[in-house]
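Help!! Second protein's tokens look totally different from the first
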Amino acid sequence: MNRCKKPIQRAAVTSLCFVIALATIVLVRRSGAASSKFSAVPIWEYAIPANLQGIIDDVAILPGDSQVVATTPNAVLSVGVANEFVLRFALGPGRSAVIAAEGSRVGIFTHDRDRVVRFEVTDLSGATLTQVWSAEHFHYRLAPKGDSIVGIDSGGASLPFEADHFVYRFFDSSGSSRGEVQSPGPQPKDSDYTPDGTCFLISNAQGLSSYSVADASLRWRISKKVKFFAPAVGTTDEVVASDDRQRNLAELYQAGQLRWGYTLADNVRNLGISPSGGFVLASDAKTLRAFGSNSSEPIWSFTVPNSHLSINSVAVNDLGVVALGAQHDSLGSGTVFILDPTGTEIFSKETAHTLSNAWIPVVQFDAMGGYCLIRTLEVMTMISISSHD
């Protein structure tokens, strides 16, 4: 799990600059790349126009495609090998958007002062597919494929952070209600879908629970408070979580039962799990460890080569290829590493951060694991991941 997150001038939307000389900014350690069965190759890179830097919100990669869909406060855009940001559609006054994790659906909020009065799901042209009219919810979560919705109600509190409980209402692809869950003591990292969208996880003061999106029925519960978590697909019932009290403890659970735990040298900073389970990541600020689902013995570990770097973002695909983004403590630069399933480095790239942010660079795979996006506030780089068995 990665813990991170002005009017647009249309003339500037297509003004991205394609960087041809990727070789000048990419550092590959030849020894590792030559001995690995995997390769990581940059296929495009764009400098984000100045008027869009720092205002891009949600970003998703279309599965099996090198195209990226992104939102800003007033538009939905896409970018790919066509060497430009393309305006998909504009958002009118009082509207904002989120992108479904697989990128093909958009969730649109309609605001009336401090309330959300409508949530609609659209395709990438802006055509409405379904909608929920309600003033009860302050936020919505959209399933990875955009085929279900969960509305979050602060239980009558005027501000979400003042709420003593949340109500989660489940809606299907037609906008019909499928059930609801009341949750006391909501946590900052309160909820998330599984990567396949079949289950919805809720974290509160009593623990972490998984519910079926079909009818809001409870599947399993972990009866202790967690700080943050990362789930695999619902059919595995696997989730990796960090303990709220023992902050350096990472644990893997299946169907609410502890499989194993591992104590890091320092507080858990990042967690990750491959979509189908099987590969688990846990890092503190300096060292990332990779595990299998059956043992707390690390398969390998990777320590950043510069003591001034701190790990800010991790991701792993179903083949066990890992991406790691680390930032220099000056906040002005960083390095991204891509490692094969044995922990061998197959790619690295230095990043320059003109605009400082404490949680960049960000790394993320598409749903199929064949592409990895590297993102700062100024630049996006797409990497193609291949195996050579």
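Here's the second one for comparison:
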Amino acid sequence: MSTLRRIIYFTLVFSMFFSFTLDSNVEANGSNTDYQDPMAAAYKIRNYEYEGKIYKAIPMDSKQSVETVQQSIESTVKDIESIKLNDARLEDRQAIKEYLESEYGDIFGGTYSEKDGTNVYLLTKKVDNLEKRIKEKSKYPDKTKFKYVKYSKKELKNSKKVIYDSANALGLSGVGMNSKTNKVNIYLSEESFSLHKDDILKKINEDMVNWIVGDMSTEELAYDLYPGERINMGPNEILFSWCSLGFNAFNSSGAYVGVTAGHCGNSVYFDLSDGSSSIGSMNNAVNSPTSRIDAGYINYVSSVDPSVNLNLNSLTIGTFDYNGSRHEVGDAVTLHAQSFGGNGTHALTVLDESFDDPNGNLDMVLTENAAAVAGDSGGLFYSHISNGKKTYACIEGILKGRVNNNSTGTKYLVFSKFKNVYDGLKLGGVLVDSSY
């Protein structure tokens, strides 16, 4: 095989910002087992089915305080009609994607959207009248395009798994996938590259690989409760002893819980902005190389009043990305965590759709960087979505941490996907705004 023409050298430092997640077990002491069964809620529960599983949206009224809410930049600038159009195009993309995966999985290479809203479908070969049939199925045929690539998404996934299964033996720091570039991203040190390149290329075709060479290390930073709000791992305001709340939910027993990053750890948690009493305990933190999530949840005590409102922001959670249709490579997401106050980050572009870290977690999403700091772990990643009348937040996942390129100064953020968090923690439903 020919030598790769382009090798990216850099040193990677992986930083995790403390946060917390939830488990399906409710503690007997202090848990809010007296809450009403979510099935008896005043609003009709919305059920979403995907891959044989049900994802429940539990509606509740929003309850923002005019005195404390700051109108966020996103909510004032975003045009509802443009968001509604983007939502429709993403739904169209997902429908076509599922059709191609089902009927043409052996030649389907993935999909992404261009900045002008054009949906691009990747195929490995031409099939008679397929482009015509896809355009007939699409609601936006003039915004539908095709690109021909060498490898199908199945081939990329299979090769990625083969490499990941030998990641520790090969000294790899991470393995990712980018359907848009039709590549498997392999992260490794210069030493491992020199020692194991030939061994790696016995397992994967060289033209399928994007080498990312450098050293990766892990650095953990780790009464009304709002997504993105600070939560403390103790009764005192000690530096870096906090994380960020991702979103509020029900566990499988029907009790309120608060989801955050697992590496924040099993502990008693506090919301010191409201008082000195504990908000509950986490005992199901998940964060291992065999897991798809860095997550856990706090079993709330009965005095906690969970909210669908983003902390200090006019946005509310309207729904969630249960099928992963809104974080393909090139899509935009936003992080809302404790250090950003009420505004959240600017729109962050997705760069790697399935990043595996042998020393971290599997199947995460890698995005452009933002100025996240210690204490942002577990913060909410969301996309903007509209019902035609109002803009809402759609949950994409929760923040794990950062990858730093110390050679070039380039930095990235990485988060656990919502679907993986919901499944991994065995949640019983997620709190959403009843007006969505």
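Reply: Different proteins will give different token patterns, so don't panic. The chain has six helices and 29 strands.
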